[in-house]
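Input for the complex:
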Amino acid sequence: MSDTTVTTHVFDAAVDLFPVVDDRTEGHTHPAYANMVGPFGGITAATLLRAVERHPDVLGTPISLTVNFAGPISDGPFDIAVRPVRTNRSTQHWSIELAQNGEVTTTATAVFGLHRPTWSSTEVQRPDAPAPADLHRSYLPEFIAWAGNYEMRFVEGDVPTEQSGEHTDSTSTLWVRDDPARPLDHASLTAMCDVFYPRAFLRLGRMLPAGTVSMTIYYHADPDVLAAQADRPVLATARAHRFGNGFFDQTGYLWGEGDELFATTHQVVYFKP
Amino acid sequence: MSDTTVTTHVFDAAVDLFPVVDDRTEGHTHPAYANMVGPFGGITAATLLRAVERHPDVLGTPISLTVNFAGPISDGPFDIAVRPVRTNRSTQHWSIELAQNGEVTTTATAVFGLHRPTWSSTEVQRPDAPAPADLHRSYLPEFIAWAGNYEMRFVEGDVPTEQSGEHTDSTSTLWVRDDPARPLDHASLTAMCDVFYPRAFLRLGRMLPAGTVSMTIYYHADPDVLAAQADRPVLATARAHRFGNGFFDQTGYLWGEGDELFATTHQVVYFKP
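Predicted:
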């Protein structure tokens, strides 16, 4: 783990890893990013991305990441196997597994690569949103520790309260940034892709058992674009497509300054209504 | 491979595999599903799903699948390693690798599981579409062999011709079914999730180098729903979110009879304009 005299942001402490040696590294859960059972999925995804970023053979920056939440992660240390399966001229494919006591809790695949300027076009529309300062800050219940590390200001689809009834759609749009503020990078963007509380809570107007089964991120922003964003809030929006048979799926978009689409993210979630 | 006296549909021949023994099996590319370089990505994805389905320890039916196209697959035989990483009470997580001559060409992860009836709701809207019989059949250029196995009738976003100019959006909506007709199952649905020609062709009005890097499918239909669909056409629609830096991403929806959302599918694609 890093030995440093400057103050380490809690996010960096949470995704900190030992150096990657022979495709293996180790980390430790962080209490500040605890969820109801085990850690916040977003911090686990960010930690797996960070393992690739810290691998000595890494090529370029993230293009895609898929994380499968196979079983609960207990508070404590964990082992990560991070293997470059195939390196091409401009893309590199990774297989990643997180285990505790020899039992795999999380699997992932990632594609990294070199980005080159090409014709570009963004077809999806950024939702309209008032300035963050014009919106109140929302809080998730205190026992959801990880949410305390995010300043969330909802434009629509705020966290249900005891007075909330059913809602006709599952869209939430919010300004989000790390609290305390921290310059955005691919790891923190990865965690933010999982910042949406379960869409079933919004539709049904109440909390219920739910957990992400599999999550995918497509990264559109290169490091220069993220550096220009610095620590300003990201506009995040997500909506479910279909609920049924104990699962629902959703798609989210994370927008930066200048109508830049930073990432598109998808997940399938287990729920018990 | 199957030894049978009834006629085997070309799709079943293409995804046919030796029995899975010790988490390993073998298959062979099929010329009818060839793409410009190597096989159609959809048939590779379907073959990997089929490897899980044929594993003696499989639990339930598909919930999600992610396939990463790491390198080209040559015409000929291939080896598949298909490993149940973790089996829970109602979900099972799989890691899959396809290799030729010891070199990995394709990695994948899948989640299978038991579906149970719950509250359900479909939030996305099925696009309006005339009946298939009221639309002409489209053909991709003859050198794209796999496309000959699909009857495609476009509602919008038809295949560009030499006269096509640039297009303002990248939406294609089409009726699609196997040709010859074949009752839908999870394997054929998987292949159909990759039936959309690259969205950059539509936007720029011309063919250009492009290939899927990573593809994810969330399955909403259980086997009963697919059985009820039988061999009727599926309404498939897809649109890109953002093009830039040599990649674009898209989301697609596959709809069955009765406004049933069968699958949501996402992919990130390399392109060279």
